[in-house]
Design brief:
- The chain has 5 helices and 10 strands.
- The chain is of the alpha+beta class and about 210 residues long.
- It has one domain (about 10-205): Sortase, Chain: A.
- The longest helix is centred in the first third of the chain and has 13 residues, at about 45-55.
- Residues about 1-50 have low confidence and may be disordered.
Amino acid sequence: MALKGRMSRTIFIANFLALDISLLFYMGLPAPRGTIASRRPIRSEVSQLAQNLEASPLRNVYFGDSLILPVVQQPGDRPNYVSTNDGEVTQFSSASQYGNIGLLAHNYLSGKSFSHLAIGQAVQLEYQDGKTESFIIAEILSYRALRPKDPFSSFQNLNNQAEILSAAQMFERVYAGDHHITLQTCIAKNGISSWGRLFIVAVPNPN
């Protein structure tokens, strides 16, 4: 997600959120079996989450006792906005529409800390009203964008190269399904800032 200077909307989408633009197209596609996107949340769940967020936005996300990141919101007219302040993450509004929480960060700012997270690690959300939710990291997913500058690029799973997902399927894979958090940043490689995507998926703590 590394962005330098001002960019046109087209380049911004291509380099940053190929997944966001796919939101317009993915609604009719089935989710891959055996993934966290095993079902779409029912309307009442999405509506309840939207009401909760409107009543009390997110304030902070905690990763154990070692890392605390304030959460900022996307402006209503900028669904691709991501904070350019180090030490912050941005809540992905498109994920909220599906009953889940997406947290975005540039890989040269707060996103660089995502690569140090581990499965089983605790994640806690704190809302403005003091309410908290506890999660456990369940999956760490790394994908290569086969066409990094194409907003409709397919994505190849770096741990299972036989798995190639369209942009629409990629969005569904990480943002649809039962209530969870998805942390997203880009993977830079070979001088390409948007070479791939890193997703950290955390599910509610059962304890």
